[in-house]
Amino acid sequence: MRRTWPVLVVSFCILGGAPGALAQDPQPSPTPEIPRTPPPRKLWESEEGGLFLLNRVQGRFTHTMPDDSVRLSGMETGESKGEFKIRRAKTEITGWVWKKELTFELQLSWAGPEPGASTQSALEDLVLNWDASKKGTFEIAFGQFKVPLGRQEMTSSGRLQFLDRDILTYEFTRGRDIGVQFGGRLAEGRLQYLAGIFNGNAASRAGNDNGKYQYNARLVFEPWGSVGYSEGDFESTDRPLLAIAGQFEHNDQLRAGSSLSNVFEYKTVIWGADAVFKYRGFSAFAEVFARERQPLSGASFASDGWHAQAGYFLVRDRFEAAVRYATWDPTEVVDEDDQVEKGVALSYFFRKHGLKLQGDFRQLEDKQDETKTEELRLQLQVMF
Questions:
Q1: Each residue of 55-87: pLDDT tens digit?
Q2: Of 39, 160, 312, 365, which has the fewest CB atoms closer than 10 Å, so is most exposed?
Q3: Does 367 score more than 70 pLDDT?
Q4: Confidence band for 121, pLDDT divided at 50, 70 and 90
Q5: Residue 145, Ramachandran bin (φ over 0: left; ψ between -120 and 50: alpha; else beta)
């Protein structure tokens, strides 16, 4: 795969995508936050604080059709397999204490952690966010939450056009970590930024795996109003929406294998850029990552990738069709070893993302092994 270097520019906090979403600006900006559907249920609120609750459940059926040379667990080589599962079941408790500039978020996963998180903990998010500027221009967040890397990763799994994120996102972004970050909105809300320092070894760990840290930064420019982190276009009406973003990550990560002697370290640097466009039911986004890895011993190597996705409401705000393409190269040293995903999706929204039925079909190709696996998936999401 040809090496592609990103250009500029982000981050933007909406509840479920990044911390700080409940902080309220007493003077709303020209680009207000996109309201949640459904909104979190208010359990209690007074002059001293507020408490809100939201649950999300995804029930799924998957039928996997492997390549003739691939053997699925419990099956013969090349034999297909179907299964039912609760893909996600999450409880989100949010609110504010003492002042509305000091907000918190707690999210628990009852159906198991997302990829990369510890298998010993149901904790996904636990974050305190302080709007020090009282108007959203400078906020400080501390705790465990999603690091600012990857538009699709920062989009809540409840707001996706497909049933899951694609292979590029799962390879280049690791989701949540523990740390502190600074962020806010400038230029009348059109320019948003996040920068943070984290342990660098994923979520729900007992501590840092070495004496170094992970550094992240993301900057976004939204010239025509807030786009937010939600796939599909529920937002634009009489004008288009556009966001252009750039991001960076540096991490010195220690990894352990099956024994204490099988330990190796990567210094990883990632540059990325993404863009999203929405207008009257049409949505499209694309993202590129350029990654450089330096082992503890041996030569450094590049590993890049990109993805693109587009959707259109055949019936406005009700019935949407989407397509995607994703590809990434594990290493530039080996030729013809790319991983590729192609897919189509259909979604019917009864109450926007609060109640929706989705189906998708995707093909996963491993060019090095010369295998192709296909999946047909159906999912019902309920938020309450």
A1: 999 999 999 999 988 888 888 888 999 999 999
A2: 39
A3: yes
A4: confident
A5: beta
Q: Write the DSSP string, 41-99.
A: EEEEEETTEEEEEEEEEEEEEEEEE--TT-B-TTS-BT--EEEEEEEEEEEEEEEEESE
Q: CB neighbours (10 Å) of residue 144?
A: 25
Contact call for residues 59 and 88 (beta carbons, < 8 A): no
User: Which pLDDT band holds residue 119 (cuts at 50, 70, 90)?
Assistant: low
Is residue 349 helix, strand or coil?
A: strand
Tokens of 210: 């070495």
Query: Residue 359 sits in which domain range?
Result: 41-383
Instruction: Classify residue 245: in a domain, yes or no.
Output: yes
Cα–Cα distance, 150 to 157 (Å, whole number): 13
Average pLDDT, the chain: 87
CA distance 332 to 212: 27
Structure tokens at 95: 């609110």
CB neighbour class for 94 (10 Å; exposed up to 12, middle 13-18, buried from 19): buried
Q: What is the pTM of this model?
A: 0.85
The pLDDT of residue 84 is 97
What confidence score (pLDDT) does residue 19 get?
A: 54
Span 263-281, average pLDDT: 90
- 12 in any annotated domain: no
Per-residue CA distances from 132 to 120, 306, 338 (Å): 34, 36, 45
Is the Cβ–Cβ distance between 377 and 359 less than 8 Å?
Answer: yes
106 with 95: CB under 8 angstroms? no
How many domains, in total, are found in the chain?
1
Annotate 32-45 with b (16+ C-beta within 10 A) or e (fewer).
ebbebeeebeeeee
Helices (H), the chain: 151-154, 167-172
CB 20 within 8 A of CB 183: yes
Mean pLDDT of 258-264: 49
User: Does 29 fall in a domain?
Assistant: no
Confidence of residue 36 (pLDDT cuts 50, 70, 90): low
Q: Which two tokens stand for residue 20?
A: 């700080």
In the chain the beta strands, taken as DSSP E runs, fall at 41-46, 49-65, 81-97, 99-109, 123-131, 139-146, 176-186, 191-198, 214-221, 241-256, 263-279, 282-295, 301-315, 319-328, 339-349, 355-366, 371-383
Asked whether residue 378 is domain-assigned, the answer is: yes
Cα of first residue to Cα of last residue in the chain, in angstroms, is: 44
